[in-house]
Design brief:
single chain, 244 residues, 48% helix, globular
Length: 244
């Protein structure tokens, strides 16, 4: 219970500090390049995410940092739990936005930061909104921003890899950018498997070899989707075997 109180207190208590920082960042925006502003705006969310993970008392191991490419990429990850984004934000020294459900817009400060981070909001109940999010995300990538997407759409809660929806492959193809696969394990052990109470967990984040646009652009869509999913699934299985 104490871990839960500590974590959620920090999660919302940090927002006034973040709001002040955001105003100062936005004043600098006209004088910075796209990549410079992306790096600047990412500093506070990264600190916020690191503070959250510290308060869960979880241990996070990261492999493959040397594989991070330059330039915009579509980051594709499996989706275990609510702590996936804090883990990735605090672990990867590469600015990125992400696709989020529109309900997040009701929160204070957070959605304003997300807009400047080039996040894309989606209404999953509206097919037109879902289709627009594909073109909006591709446009962000073309402009030079990296984006994180969870192709499963919903959290697996540690119950195995779910079906990958096709939208991410269309985004990568339309934007002409590489795909950077991630394999994440253990985040569901922080909350989802504990009746939403926060407990320390062992979390493993694997950054996998980027997949060049030339590699998947000529593949049929279903084959390309399965190709990416297989990479992530193999990494998860290998990590699981090592832990046994």
């Amino acid at each position: 219970m104490l871990n839960s109180i500590r974590t959620f207190s920090f999660l919302f208590g940090y927002l006034p500090v973040a709001a002040l920082k955001l105003k100062s960042f936005q004043k600098k925006k006209p004088h910075l390049t796209i990549s410079e502003y992306d790096e600047l705006i990412h500093t506070e969310p990264r600190k916020w995410a690191a503070g959250i993970m510290k308060r869960t008392k979880s241990e996070v191991s990261v492999t493959g940092l040397e594989l991070l490419p330059e330039g915009p990429v579509l980051i594709v990850s499996n989706h275990e739990g609510n702590f996936d984004i804090p883990v990735i934000l605090s672990s990867i020294p590469k600015p990125f936005g992400f696709i989020s459900k529109k309900e997040v817009k009701k929160l204070p400060v957070i959605p304003v930061y997300m807009e400047d981070m080039n996040c894309v909001f989606i209404d999953r109940t509206d097919r037109r909104s879902a289709l627009k999010s594909i073109s909006d995300t591709a446009e962000k990538l073309i402009e030079g921003h990296s984006i994180l997407i969870f192709p499963e759409g919903t959290r697996s809660k540690g119950n195995g890899l779910g079906e990958f929806k096709a939208g991410f492959m269309r985004i990568a193809a339309d934007a002409g950018v590489p795909i950077l696969p991630l394999a994440i394990q253990g985040t569901a052990d922080i909350m989802e498997k504990n009746n939403n109470k926060i407990k320390p967990a062992q979390v493993r984040l694997q950054i996998l070899e980027p997949i060049a646009h030339e590699t998947f652009k000529s593949m049929p869509s279903k084959e390309a989707i399965q190709f990416v999913k297989d990479k992530i699934e193999a990494a998860l299985q290998n990590a699981g075997n090592l832990q046994k």
